[in-house]
UniProtKB/TrEMBL annotation:
CDD domains: GST_C_Ure2p_like (cd03178), GST_N_Ure2p_like (cd03048)
Similarity comment text for this entry: Belongs to the GST superfamily.
Pfam families: GST_C (PF00043), GST_N (PF02798)
Species of the source: Fulvimonas soli
Residue ranges constituting the GST C-terminal domain according to the UniProt record: 108-234
PANTHER family: DISULFIDE-BOND OXIDOREDUCTASE YFCG, GLUTATHIONE S-TRANSFERASE-RELATED
Protein name: GST-like protein
Boundaries of every GST N-terminal domain copy: 18-105
Entries under PROSITE patterns matching the protein: GST_CTER, GST_NTER
Record-linked InterPro entries: Glutathione-S-Trfase_C-like (IPR010987), Glutathione-S-Trfase_C_sf (IPR036282), Glutathione_S-Trfase (IPR040079), Glutathione_S-Trfase_N (IPR004045), GST_C (IPR004046), Thioredoxin-like_sf (IPR036249)
């Protein structure tokens, strides 16, 4: 049996199955990247709910695993060389699990890097911009009298949806016929934008038919349906 006692996070979130990957997360757009990937790969894992609304991601125990205080984070008891590995940042987790399982990332070097660039597109652009739309449209920012920040982020989100729509023209998935970590990274954010953030009309989502069809295909996947709910609040 694996010994994860060296990780302080396991004291706040006790481990019942230390031989499984430990997932510390919440079903936010970033969090579900890890849970969807784990569901898609079939790797055994144990989810632990980190309630960011209760600031649990800034407790000393969680910060010992991710000093940046963000979900998701994982511990793989069977990391490189058979030693436990703690890992944070959702993009890094996707790449790690893809390499570990040889799934959802092309073996061909050129297509592998093409996939990674679209993961970075989500990390650097879609996530931050959509998140700002959420803040200024749904959360505290909606009370601001100055609506210029909201307009800026809405305009940029529309532009990014246009980039994604162009990429998906004639393609089933971001990488064509292959469903990859680029799709897994992006699905939760697009879905969140038009559902939880309530910004469908605001960003004129109906203009992006290729994105809408891609999202529908992604949401139809059983692993995506499960991953979007893990770990959810009781």
């Amino acid at each position: 049996m694996s010994d994860l006692s060296a990780f302080p996070v396991t004291r706040r979130w006790p481990t019942r199955h230390p031989d499984r990957i430990q997932l510390y997360s919440l079903n936010t757009p970033n969090g579900v990247k890890a849970s969807i990937m784990l569901e898609e790969t079939g790797l055994p894992y144990e989810p632990h709910l980190v309630d960011i609304m209760q600031d649990e991601s800034h407790t000393p125990e969680f910060l010992s695993l991710n000093p940046n205080g963000k979900i998701p984070a994982i511990i793989d008891p069977d990391g490189p060389g058979g030693k436990p590995l703690g890992l944070f940042e959702s993009g890094a987790i996707l790449l790690y699990l893809a390499d570990k399982t040889k799934q959802f990332i092309p073996a061909d070097a050129a297509r592998r890097w093409e996939t990674i660039q679209w993961v970075f597109f989500q990390m650097a652009s879609i996530g931050p911009m959509f998140g700002q739309v959420g803040f200024f449209h749904k959360f505290a920012g909606r009370e601001y009298e100055d609506k210029r920040p909201l307009k800026r982020y809405v305009d940029e989100s529309r532009r990014l949806l246009g980039v994604l729509d162009g990429r998906l023209d004639g393609r089933e998935w971001i990488m064509g016929g292959d469903y990859t970590i680029a799709d897994i990274a992006t699905l939760g954010w697009v879905n969140n934008l038009i559902t939880f953030y309530g910004a469908r009309e605001l960003v004129e989502f109906g203009r992006y038919a290729n994105v809408a069809a891609w999202l529908e295909r992604g949401l139809a996947r059983p692993a995506v349906q499960r991953g979007l709910k893990i770990p959810g609040r009781d």
